[in-house]
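[step 3/7] fold_predict: job queued, chain A
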Amino acid sequence: MSSDGAQQGGTDGGTAGGRTVRVVLVDDHRMFRTGVQAEIGETGRTGVEVVGEAADVDQAVTVITATRPEVVLLDVHLPGGGGVEVLRRSAAMMTDAERPVRFLALSVSDAAEDVIGVIRGGARGYVTKTITGTDLVNAIFRVADGDAVFSPRLAGFVLDAFASTDAPPIDEDLDRLTQREREVLRLIARGYAYKEIAKQLFISVKTVESHVSAVLRKLQLSNRHELTRWAAARRLV
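[step 4/7] structure written:
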């Protein structure tokens, strides 16, 4: 994980006082979960104890219910309905006065709609997967304490969204796309090659091609140039 600081408030995190924070990792990429576990899961050093993992929405709800961690590291794009669905089905645990389960989104996506969606769903923060292991541990402790934590440029999305009294308009065209298709769309519009997208999203080039074909079909576009213009017009790039 490379450097990506987080804007935070409150007291210092870490292992001060021998405190341990119990965490569940929710991400559909096993290799990424393994990497996070290696970065933060050495409890004696970090104070973080990874008590469970999940790769989709149903697994996540089952593991979170069984383990009742203090913090869930939640990917935004998951099979079964995405991170927002996990939040919806975990609402009672989030509002438990005695043992609240708090959620920190950890995603490759830095799109405003993804950030706003999970924050509205109840997550306490959102950091991107470029965050360092040290900063992630610090973010976990702060979220466990009830603070809000964001990667620097993402905080503005949330402030803008919640400062507005008007709900954002529904884009029916965008609503036709799955979360993964939106992610591929955004990377295509930014000029990434298929191989680069596959590497960044931990999927095959063939899967990227399938997503692009689906996006073009759903939006009734002919090629990636039209797709880029479409995305730019909606400020998705």
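[step 5/7] annotate
The two ends are 23 Å apart (CA to CA).
The CA atoms of residues 108 and 129 lie 5 Å apart.
exit 0
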